[in-house]
User: Fold this.
Amino acid sequence: MTLPAALTSAFRDALTFWLPCACAGCGAPDENLCDGCRADLAPRPSWREAAPDLGVVCGLRFEGVAARVVRAFKEEGRTALARDLAPALTAALAASIPPGARITTVPSSRAAFRRRGYRPVEVLARRAGCRPERLLRLRRAPADQRGLGGRARRENVRGAFAARVPLRGPVVIVDDVITTGATLAEAARALRAAGATDVRAVALAYTPRRRRSEAEAEVIST
Assistant:
C-alpha cells in the first residue's frame, strides 16, 4: 500500500471509531447494516447484454437498498460492507466461470485509487472468493460516464484499455455496476485482441433501464 493510501485508510478507520455508525441501507442507528437491509441484498442473478458478443451475469439490481449500500462501500470508505455484498457477486460468478478461466477486473484510474485508497472491484472479488489478476491496464483515463448516453459512453471508453500480457483461454471480467455495458464491452475487446477466448463478464449489480420491460432480464436459477 502506498503512503497516501495508507494515510487514507488510517483516517477512515479513525472516523469509523469516533463517529456513530448507521445502517448503510436505511440509516438505522448503531448498525453497519441492519438485518432487513441485509435481506434486500439476497442474490438474484440475471443476464444482461453489454454487447452483441458479450453477456453479463449480474447479482443485484442497482436500486433502493442495494444502490445505497454499493455507494457507501465505494464512496464512503465503508469497506466492511464488502462482506454483505459478496454473496451476490459469488452467485453471479458461479453462473459464469468456465473451467480454467482467469479472472480479472476493470481497472480503476489512478485518481480514483488516490481518492479512495482501495480498488472496490478487487476488494469485492477477493471477498467473493476470487483471486483476480490485473490483466488489463488503462491506456488513458476516460471521462466521467455519469450523464452520458449509450453511444457517448462507448466513444468515451473506446481504446481506453489494453492487456498487460499475451493471453489465451477463457477470461472472466468482474465489475461493480453495469449501466449500458460500454466499459465491459471495451475491456472484452482488449482481452480478445491479446488472444483471450471465451471472454465473459460478471457485475455485482445492474442499473435497471426504466424504458424496458421487466421481463427482459432472465432470472438465472442457482
